[in-house]
Automatic annotation (TrEMBL):
Signal peptide bounds: 1-19
Taxonomic superkingdom: Eukaryota
Keywords: Signal
Keyword Signal: yes
Protein's UniProt name: Glycosyltransferase family 92 protein
């Protein structure tokens, strides 16, 4: 009577591709969470799946039946909160019978294959494929647009067959309030970071714990009052500052950093919930939330299904033009989409719902995600499984500019060999070991620091591996297109209207 699909029960994680199929109506759609009544998409008995992750049981039930193991006489994933999926009705068609897809409340219809002409009355057309898209916006009744890289000014998916889709109306989303929490130390472009998130992405509040108070104070006082009013600043407990004293490098800071991040996340959860914030995201001061379709953060989160309490946001890595880059955010035009070639982490960050049923019991399980107390995963959605790929990314501007890389790894150089061996990123290990070697060389030859305090700047006369030229070669080998692991197919243009953002003009 029942068809059973068994697999590894990943608590709370939809299997790869399932979320995207659900959003397309191919062929299932969510119709109840465990313990509630099934809301069937049509009258009569309908096929229903009950389970989570890769473990499901299937049968036919009437609308109004309970979504429970009792109804199916079987529990496919014991100890895990499950959902019911009902077989969907036929997918709707768009304008003139064109294929229609929905990206978290935003409907799009397919209007042209690459090389053809796309008629799109809304003037909003996306060009690309496989999660890599470029957007063109035209005011008023727009003339047809040619579906090719020349018309869009970029090729978002090099050597791939692309297509165009037309926006079919305003996105449907609830009004929500979103906040960011981060731990910050020596932020290189904090004013730019704030302007981008507060003014452009629509973040309502930022909670930031600052670990370098003297330098940050000057940055803070120079900020516009309208921005300071939307930022909550915490300073470390003075009794805990020894590990970050200006005269002492943190010991094994790669590992201790995460524990401090968790503390900031937990504190922000409490304060943000008290302030009526609906969603909270932890990112760093070298990361930007990026929407290829220029959707405000609150719009994306406001379109989340009501039973989703955590949304996983994939990360990509900035690829810099050269080691001479100064303003890393503004001067970077490309990102690496191939997570297997990242120099740092590749498991993204998450947005967590603060007004959901599990909010009281959730806690950070590392800087990338949250869990229920006891380690169970929250009901989650992976944004990169949406029909067009992720509508939101975390762009990681890691180790930029070059001077920040010097400072960062000079501090991380105070890490013993046992801990270095545990670091999963080759770029980090190579950078730490080079800085340890150069610090020892400087000490043995009594080379002075530069007036600016940079341990290995151009003012320090060094040779061999410790010269500025060789250090920049190492940095460029990982952080620019000189990286031999990168190919043109890995890269996508980063299209942010910085001129409008920085001047306050329309984006």
């Amino acid at each position: 009577m029942w068809a059973l699909a068994l697999g590894s029960a990943a608590a709370g994680v939809l299997p790869v591709g399932l979320a995207a199929r659900l959003r397309r109506g191919e062929p299932w759609e969510p119709c109840a969470t465990e313990g509630l009544q099934i809301s069937a998409p049509r009258a009569g008995r309908v096929p229903v799946r009950f389970g989570w992750g890769d473990s499901w049981v299937e049968g036919e039930l009437q609308g109004g039946s309970p979504c429970s193991a009792v109804a199916f006489d079987f529990d496919p994933a014991p100890g895990v909160r499950k959902v019911c999926l009902c077989q969907a009705a036929s997918a709707p068609a768009g304008r003139a019978g064109r294929e229609l897809r929905e990206e978290l409340g935003a409907p799009w219809s397919r209007c042209a294959a690459e090389g053809a002409s796309c008629a799109c009355p809304s003037g909003r057309v996306r060009f690309g494929t496989e999660g890599r898209w470029a957007l063109q916006r035209r005011a008023g009744a727009a003339a047809p647009v040619q579906c090719d890289a020349e018309s869009f000014g970029t090729d978002p998916a090099f050597q791939r067959q692309k297509e165009c889709w037309c926006s079919e109306g305003q996105p449907k989303a609830q009004q929500v309030r979103a906040a960011i929490v981060m731990l910050s130390r020596h932020p290189p472009e904090f004013a730019t970071w704030l302007r981008y998130h507060l003014d452009y992405m629509g973040v309502e509040r930022v909670f930031v714990e600052v670990e370098d108070t003297p330098r940050f104070n000057a940055t803070w006082t120079a900020l516009p009052a309208v921005h300071r009013q939307r930022v909550t600043v915490w300073h470390p407990n003075p009794y805990e500052k020894l590990a970050h004293d200006a005269q002492q490098r943190p010991v094994n800071d790669y590992e201790t950093l995460q524990s401090r991040q968790l503390g900031a996340m937990d504190r922000a959860k409490t304060e943000a919930a008290s302030a009526g914030i609906n969603w909270l995201i932890h990112i760093d001061d070298d990361e930007l939330l990026y929407s290829p379709m220029r959707r405000p953060l609150a719009e994306v989160l406001g379109a989340m299904p009501s039973d989703v309490e955590q949304a996983y946001i994939p990360n990509v890595e900035a690829v810099y033009p050269s080691a001479e880059v100064r303003n890393c955010f503004v001067d970077t035009a490309e990102v690496n989409m191939n997570r297997y070639t990242f120099a740092s982490y590749a498991n993204g960050k998450s947005a967590v719902r603060l007004d959901g049923p599990d909010a009281e019991y959730m806690e950070p399980a590392g800087p990338h995600l949250w869990r229920q107390a006891g380690g169970y995963e929250l009901p989650s959605l992976h944004l990169d499984e949406e029909p067009f790929g992720s509508p939101l990314y975390v762009v990681h501007f890691e180790s930029c500019p070059f001077s920040r890389w010097e400072d960062k790894f000079e501090e991380l150089g105070n890490t013993n060999s046992e801990h270095i061996g545990k670091i999963p990123f080759q770029f980090y290990r190579e950078s730490i070991e080079r800085m340890q070697h150069c610090s020892a060389t400087r000490s043995n030859t009594h080379l002075p620091r530069s007036p600016a305090g940079s341990p290995l700047s151009a003012n320090v006369i060094a040779s061999g591996e410790c010269s500025e030229l060789e250090l920049k070669k190492l940095w460029s080998h990982w952080k620019t297109e000189a990286n031999p692991k990168l190919t043109r197919r890995d890269l996508m243009a980063l299209r942010i209207p910085w001129q409008q953002i920085m001047t306050g003009g329309p984006a």
